[in-house]
Design a protein that fits this description.
alpha+beta; 11 strands; two-stranded antiparallel ribbon; nine-stranded mixed β-sheet
Length: 177
């Protein structure tokens, strides 16, 4: 069930957080390679983001997940959190969407809210449906703000990460499948 949460959730309120350590992982996909990485420190995460953003051609929509270390689900289920983002290094803008599964099984989702919007930049949060899943210009933040938000998402204690402003996002505008 999607729940509109205008406030915040503590990391301890996420699914499985009471019994398992939550670890951040990411998938970065290019036309000729796919990288899966697990982040152990904030410095390592930022180095990975900087490396990914330095390539001449950007990746498909980066997909990051928080997983409960050692947890074995009985069937398919959402990880405690998913984060997707896109960026344009030339114009120094980015945007992100965030999904959190709480300990009660409720899903909360947000989209960044910023003032870096541009009509000449196209950002998407779903590489498979780029025309249907575009970020609106009011969701654009700066690349440094994105870096801070991703680091807080991976290692912080509050969702959504307070490095940027967020608004509640509906299931229709995000579509996680």
């Amino acid at each position: 069930m999607i729940t509109a949460t205008n406030g915040t959730l503590a990391r301890a309120e996420l699914a499985h957080a009471a019994t398992h350590r939550l670890k951040a992982r990411a998938n970065f996909q290019y036309s000729d390679a796919q990288y899966s990485v697990e982040f152990t420190t904030e410095a390592g995460l930022l180095r990975c983001l900087d490396t990914m953003m330095s390539f001449p051609r950007k990746s498909a929509t980066p997909r990051l997940h928080l997983w409960a270390e050692g947890y074995k689900p009985r069937g398919p289920e959402w990880p405690p959190s998913n984060l997707r983002f896109d960026f344009d290094r030339e114009h120094e803008v980015a945007a992100a969407v965030l999904l959190v599964l709480d300990r009660d099984g409720d899903i909360h989702q947000w989209m960044t809210l910023g003032d870096a919007g541009r009509d000449d930049v196209f950002l998407t949060h779903d590489s498979w449906s780029p025309k249907e899943r575009r970020f609106p210009p009011e969701s654009f933040i700066t690349v440094p703000q994105l870096r801070a938000a991703v680091a807080e998402w991976a290692f912080g204690d509050v969702f959504p990460p307070p490095a940027v402003r967020w608004r509640v996002a509906s299931e229709d505008e995000v579509g996680w499948l």
